[in-house]
Design goal:
Blueprint (H helix, E strand, L loop, with lengths): L8 H10 L6 H15 L4 E4 L7 H6 L4 E5 L2 H8 L9 E3 L11 E6 L10 H14 E12 L12 E6 L3 E8 L4 E9 L6 E9 L3 H10 L2 E7 L13 E8 L2
Parallel strand pairs: 1-2, 1-4, 2-3, 4-5
Antiparallel strand pairs: 5-11, 6-7, 7-8, 8-9, 10-11
Helix pairs in contact: 5-6
């Protein structure tokens, strides 16, 4: 069982069209370069593979990829792109589902570890990554830095996008470390907006490092983005790499 919210058929069908920036060559090129270098001549396992935004181009690069995905609807969209032999997918949650074999790389991108809404589940996700890694293998996470610096006293919401077709803001519960992302997306040209929301448990980089240590992993590298730019106190997100002892 998992606390993650399940993506339904409508959300799965819209996902690729609504994430055009994240599927651009500029974003995916650097992402795939980063992951392919870490995978080397080994296999990669993607937790929450979704519609294959990253897994499919990484497989096209020549890295054997297997995916774990909670939503059958998201996996069905992926299956239209590649067949099961090319990119196998196991339906299950990323904290407990086990697939056969060892991997040189396990990765979890685009804030998805925050979909696990308890600290215990996030710790189990690290343990599950370590369980699948061969000695010397790496676990990679892409995660936003909690936007608490933007919260003045008395304010509970932080805008993250104000554009022509989308309004987005986060509301934050600092006691439970829970964040709700609210989305207002304009569909069509009639001026109507579709409202959506998703819940997340945010975690600081130092908290993730402790989770990694519990799982037997050590921090190897932390950067601000897939291009390897330095991580600083101004960075809105981080790419972190933990290594399993050889």
């Amino acid at each position: 069982m998992t606390s993650s919210e399940l993506w339904g058929p409508e959300s799965a069908e819209r996902y690729d069209a609504e994430e055009t920036e994240m599927t651009s060559a500029a974003v995916l090129g650097a992402t795939v370069d980063f992951l392919a270098e870490l995978a080397g001549d080994g296999r990669a396992l993607e937790f929450a593979v979704g519609t294959g935004r990253v897994g499919v181009p990484l497989r096209e690069r020549g890295v054997p990829v297997t995916g774990i995905e909670l939503s059958e609807h998201m996996a069905a969209v992926l299956r239209r792109k590649v067949d099961e032999d090319t990119l196998p997918v196991v339906i299950g949650d990323m904290a407990t589902t086990v697939v056969p074999g060892e991997f040189s790389l396990v990765y979890l991108v685009y804030n998805t570890i925050s979909n696990l809404l308890t600290q215990d589940e996030q710790v189990e996700c690290f343990r599950n990554a370590a369980r699948h890694l061969r000695p010397g293998g790496r676990f990679v996470i892409e995660l936003g830095v909690p936007p608490l610096r933007f919260l003045p006293p008395g304010q509970v919401a932080v805008p993250f996008d104000v554009s022509e077709r989308h309004l987005g803001f986060d509301t934050v519960d600092t006691v439970e470390q829970l964040l709700v992302s609210h989305h207002f997306t304009r569909d069509g040209e009639d001026g109507r907006y579709r409202r959506g929301a998703s819940r997340h448990r945010y975690a600081w980089p130092a908290e993730l490092d402790l989770m990694a240590r519990i799982a037997g992993l050590q921090l190897e590298r932390r950067v601000a983005d897939w291009d390897g730019s330095p991580f600083t106190q101004e960075s809105p997100k981080h790419i972190s790499v933990w290594r399993k002892s050889a």
